[in-house]
Write a structure and sequence with these properties.
The complex is a heterodimer.
Chain A lengths: L4 E10 L2 E11 L4 E6 L5 H8 L7 E6 L2 E3 L4 H7 L1 E4 L11 H6 L5 E2 L2 E2 L1 H14 L15 H14 L4 E5 L7 H16 L3 E5 L3 H7 L2 E6 L2 E7 L5 H9 L17 E10 L3 E9 L3 E6 L5 H8 L7 E6 L2 E2 L4 H7 L1 E4 L3 H5 L6 H6 L7 E2 L2 E2 L1 H15 L15 H14 L4 E5 L7 H16 L3 E5 L3 H7 L2 E6 L2 E7 L4 H8 L10
Parallel strand pairs in A: 3-10, 3-11, 6-9, 9-10, 15-22, 15-23, 18-21, 21-22
Antiparallel strand pairs in A: 1-2, 1-4, 4-5, 7-8, 11-12, 13-14, 13-16, 16-17, 19-20, 23-24
Chain B lengths: L4 H21 L6 H26 L7 H17 L4 H26 L3 H20 L9 H8 L1 E2 L2 E2 H19 L1 H11 L1 H6 L4 H24 L13 H11 L11 H20 L6 H26 L4
Helix pairs in contact in B: 1-12, 2-7, 2-8, 2-10, 2-11, 2-12, 3-4, 3-5, 3-10, 3-11, 4-5, 4-10, 7-8, 8-10, 11-12, 11-13, 12-13
Classes of the chains: A alpha/beta, B mainly alpha.
Chain lengths: ~500, ~325
């Protein structure tokens, strides 16, 4: 069988950084080809070259036996290459329907054929089994729904090559399952699929072949059934990862964070819990159950209708700057939109939350800031390790680490982590987990919000489960994944609710 | 952070070409008197543009600066006529500007209405109040000490130019070295990230409007003290000239980036262009057209820059 898409000796550099160093890649029709690698390995650059966002410095792209120059996304679209990006690139103020068809609106004569578009949209959305109001502006949708719109949009393009970059990051297990069914159907219809994910279990469940990138080079290529998880991880990281979920048992100390009857109409109700010294408490639940909203309300980003939040017995006013001063900080879920300032250098981003303490009387002590940033870069293994680079020039996972670095520099008493390892590679994930364990060892309390069940089970001392805006279960360490899923889907009236 | 050296260089190049052309065709342009005039004109424009730059950096805009300039000028002139000492007149103009800026800022941050709407409203309110107050009458017979500020000089350099130099030095330092300066950029660049980082963004916006008001007050003093008469419609349309210098100077209109040097060069260019046209014997009616072309040229440069940095994989 001939490859549908063939990349030969692709080189690409940004400024002085070599992102890809001579990558070869082949995609056959009717295969799901996974691309894995650590953050900054070059996965995103590779797919951006295929989808016309970047042009290669050197190298050939052969599409259906023809050498092509994919100079912009429009050409890629015309060739039949559809891409679902990690960060949605849609129009927040347009409706769902307009977003689905933007760039290729259906026409009848001179007029737009809204009726036909509505019908096709409904078909595709029912394939995905999602119920969306087509007239609603996109910005009202949750992150998961936005992701689904992006997927539906790509499906509507009826592409020959389908690229998904971390497409399941925001999806619930149900939605993920449905997406996989669709991908399998597309595969049987002869579509070539490039699948990028940090979730290795998805790759073993779905993909036929896997290509491993490390530092811009292909370091391995295999049929998925011929390779073990450990071997794959070793190829990705270049070393062996011993323990993904390191925890040292400890007795929790006094209460740090206390949340009482926190409510916000229509979003969550009567949320009460506490986080103690030396404790990791997980807030689990499906996407849309209100987990992130609770975190945002605790940190004072969103208003609340009712409830009190106190830290070490002191009430905290509902404003982020007051929460931060009191010793509470939130690592946000949506790092590119909320996390950092992309035009600022890494060092400014890392130092930003403590900027008032970095002063020499009037001016910012940039030397000290630079030093602290360097320490953080080393601690979190941020790549490339240059404090003066702009945040926007880093890969998604490294941006996440920079934002985490900013939070850590505050030396908070309680750290709220919303999806701290989403989109982060295995090596960095293990690093972040080790760091969490160390921080609680030093007396910090951590509230962990995560869709990653193994992470919740592996790291948390206690697990609170939310369902439809309510706390429905309070599970101890050592609970099974089934306990969490049952509570999260509302199947179990759990016994331990307080 | 991304510093727009390209913008500074392109304005410099333009100024150079313009100067060479003037040197060839109208060397009398370079008489000291004329140059001084241009610098003085650029000074009060620049001082107000610095204030506007602060506001625009945070992602806001102020359409009421022309009206604030008028109120401050009128108040200063009346106070001076009433026999106030010069420094009190000064403080009055700066304080009044600051108070009006505070009013704008409070309306924006407490009512959470976008500044373009709020200041469109206050622009008309301020103007209306001024006309009611003066009954549209002009102010004549200003005391001579009032006019020493606008017309006097120290070390061969007119006072207004000194005012601009001090403002430049002070704000170059504030914008690059202090945490307030950095917070201005952060607030405009990504307000939600700034909030999450613990920056009280409403306070930053409020501060920008107050300082803007004070600077407009200073600009009013430098401006109005050059005339023997203060008209009630003084500074009409001034806000647009100020916004033009900020945009041409390379400050991103939606906030988050821009340099003081770019704004200073743009203010110089805009004040020079009118006189230059006269010396080329082109009708000065073209001045506005040229200003418009500068704005479009600046925006075109911005777009090209954004595209190029997208190609480089930056954001």
């Amino acid at each position: 069988m001939r490859a549908i898409l063939c990349l030969e000796n692709i080189h690409k550099s940004f400024g002085g950084v070599q992102a890809l160093k001579g990558v070869d890649f082949e995609l056959y029709p009717g295969e799901i080809h996974a691309v894995v690698g650590e953050n900054g390995a070059g996965k995103s650059t590779l797919i951006k070259i295929i989808s016309g966002v970047h042009s290669p410095d050197i190298g050939k792209i052969i599409f259906e036996n023809r050498e092509v120059a994919i100079e912009n996304p429009r050409i890629a679209q015309a060739l039949g290459i559809a891409t679902v990006y990690q960060e949605p690139n849609l129009y927040p103020d347009l409706s769902v329907l307009e977003n689905l068809f933007s760039g290729r609106l259906l026409k009848r004569g001179f007029l737009l054929d809204w009726e036909k578009m509505r019908q096709r949209a409904k078909e595709v959305l029912s394939l995905l089994d999602v119920d969306l109001v087509l007239q609603a502006p996109l910005k009202r949708l949750s992150r998961a729904q936005t992701q689904l719109v992006q997927i539906a949009r790509a499906l509507l393009a009826q592409a020959r090559v389908f690229i998904l970059d971390e497409a399941t990051a925001a999806l619930s297990p149900e939605e993920t399952k449905r997406l996989f069914e669709i991908l399998e159907r597309l595969r049987s219809q002869g579509v070539g699929i490039i699948y990028i994910s940090h979730r290795l279990e998805e790759i073993f469940r779905l993909a036929d072949r896997v290509t491993v990138l490390r530092d811009g080079e292909v370091v391995g290529r295999a049929k998925v059934r011929d390779i073990s998880v450990n071997r794959l991880v070793q190829l990705m990281v270049g070393r062996e990862i011993r323990d993904l979920y390191p925890r040292t048992p400890r007795t929790p100390g006094r209460t740090l964070l206390e949340v009482r009857n926190l409510s916000r109409r229509g979003v969550f109700e009567e949320i009460s819990f506490e986080v103690k010294e030396g404790e990791i408490v997980a807030l689990a639940g499906l996407v849309g159950s209100g987990r992130s909203e609770v975190a945002r309300a605790i940190y004072g980003l969103d208003a609340r209708d009712k409830g009190q939040i106190s830290l070490e017995g002191q009430q905290i006013p509902p404003r982020p700057w007051d929460a931060l001063r009191a010793g509470l900080i939130l690592l946000p879920e949506d790092r590119t939109r909320q996390g950092g300032i992309l035009s600022f250098p890494i060092s400014w981003n890392i130092g930003f939350s403590i900027i008032d303490y970095l002063r020499n009387r009037w001016t910012i002590d940039e030397r000290r800031e630079h030093c602290l940033a360097k320490e953080m870069i080393q601690l979190l293994d941020i790549r490339p390790p240059k404090p003066e680079l702009s945040l926007g020039s880093l890969s998604g996972g490294n941006q996440q680490k920079v934002v985490l670095g900013r939070c850590l520099l505050v030396r908070p008493k309680v750290l709220i982590l919303d999806e701290p390892t989403q989109g982060v590679d295995v090596g960095a994930k293990a690093e972040i987990h080790r760091l969490m364990d160390r921080l609680v060892g030093e007396g910090m309390g951590i509230l962990l919000i995560s869709s990653d069940l193994p992470e919740v089970l592996g790291m948390a001392d206690r697990i609170l489960v939310m369902h439809r805006g309510r706390l429905v279960a309070h599970l101890p360490r050592g609970s099974s994944p089934e306990d969490i899923i049952k509570a999260a889907t509302g199947l179990a009236e759990a016994p331990h609710v307080r | 952070m991304y510093v727009d050296r390209a913008r500074q260089l392109s304005i410099l190049a333009f100024l150079l070409v313009l100067s060479l052309a003037l040197l060839a065709y109208a060397p009398s342009f370079f008489q000291p008197g004329n140059l001084k005039d241009i610098l003085v004109n650029a000074s009060y424009l620049f001082v107000a543009a610095v204030g506007m730059m602060l506001v625009i950096l945070t992602g806001q805009i102020d359409l009421s600066v022309g009206a604030i300039l008028a109120i401050c000028s009128t108040a200063a002139a009346l106070a001076s006529k009433a026999g106030w000492p010069l420094f009190a007149v000064f403080l009055l103009a700066l304080g009044l500007g600051g108070a009006l800026g505070l009013l704008n800022g409070l309306l924006i941050t407490t009512l959470r209405i976008h500044s373009i709407i709020v200041t469109l409203g206050t622009m008309n309110i301020f103007r209306g109040a001024l006309i009611y107050w003066t009954q549209g009458a002009w102010i004549y017979d200003l005391p001579s000490d009032f006019r020493t500020v606008g017309l006097g000089q120290f070390g061969g350099i007119p006072y207004p130019v000194w005012g601009a130099i001090v403002t430049f030095a002070l704000f170059a330092w504030i914008l690059t070295q202090t945490s307030w300066g950095r917070s201005l950029y952060a607030t405009g660049s990504n307000p939600s990230a700034a909030r999450l980082s613990g920056i009280s963004t409403p306070k930053i916006v409020l501060g920008a409007f107050i300082v803007n008001g004070v600077l407009v007050g200073l600009s009013a003093v430098l401006f109005s003290t050059r005339f023997s008469v203060i008209q009630s419609n003084i500074g009409y349309g001034f806000e647009l000239l100020v916004i033009t210098s900020v945009v041409v100077g390379g400050v991103h209109i939606f906030g988050g980036s821009g340099t003081l040097l770019g704004v200073a060069l743009a203010a110089l260019l805009l004040s020079m262009i009118g006189t230059a046209l006269t010396f080329f014997r082109v009708s000065s009616y073209w001045e506005l057209t040229l200003q418009g072309l500068f704005v479009l040229g600046a925006v075109a440069l911005d777009i090209m820059r954004t595209r190029r940095s997208l190609q480089r994989g930056e954001v």
